Amino acid sequence: MLFITVSVSVRKSFFGLSTLMMVLMCYALAGVVLFGNVKWGEGINRHTNFESAGQAMLVLTRIMTGEDWYKIMNNCMITTPYCTTTLENGRRISDCGNYAAAIIYFISFYVIVSFMFVNLFIAIVVENFSLFYSDEEESLLSQKNLYNFQTTWNLIDRNRKVHPFNHEHF
């Protein structure tokens, strides 16, 4: 029964999942641009880095679960004298992070994804779970009540337009 609940929930939350994937991809690409060359440390290493979009997606998935996101943020905030900056062929090459960008990036991502999307999906699963396990007798509205309401409303509103509420009528 739990598998059925989850599968129905995934189908119902398709657009939410699509939006989440777009948000993840946008943040991953921004992470590659902002933190692609950051010096490795405690939070950023060969497994957890922003050197490619795929790696960034994995890092953001890890952050979405709340695992050591503050360590990754601290590594992305690294500035001189703890990092190096050189000039090669007139281009500045640096393994420094960006303090302000890291704070804005990680806090906004964590708030948007963890507090909004994850809770949205949990609510969808709980709602579907309660729909599957609720009895017809225990529910406030039965299918018959809904059907009667629809047929009565269709008698009143034949053209399928909303009638404005008229206070004088009552």
How is the topology of this model organized?
Layout: H1 2-12, H2 14-35, H3 53-64, H4 69-76, E1 85-88, E2 91-94, H5 99-133, H6 143-156
Antiparallel strand pairs: 1-2
Helix pairs in contact: 1-5, 2-3, 2-5, 4-5
Structure, briefly:
This protein has 170 residues and is mainly alpha-helical.
Q: How would you portray this structure in words?
A:
This protein is mainly α and 170 residues long. It has one domain (2-133): Helix Hairpins (Orthogonal Bundle), CATH 1.10.287. It is built from 6 helices and 2 strands, in the order H-H-H-H-E-E-H-H. Helix 4 (69-76) runs antiparallel to helix 5. It comes from Trichoplax adhaerens (Trichoplax reptans). It is found in: Membrane. Keywords: Membrane, Transmembrane, Transmembrane helix.
Q: What is the overall silhouette?
A: elongated
How are strands sequenced across the largest beta sheet? 1-2
Rounded to an integer, what's the Rg over CA atoms? 25 Å
Put simply, the count of helices is 6
Strands, total number: 2
H and E string: HHHHEEHH
N-to-C span: 48 Å
Q: What percent strand? A: under 5%
By CATH, the architecture is named Orthogonal Bundle
The percent range for helix content is: 55-70%
Q: How would you sum up the major sheet?
A: 2 strands, antiparallel
Provide the CATH topology: Helix Hairpins
Domain Ion transport: 5-136
Protein name: Ion transport domain-containing protein
Keywords: Membrane, Transmembrane, Transmembrane helix
InterPro entries: Ion_trans_dom (IPR005821), NALCN (IPR028823)
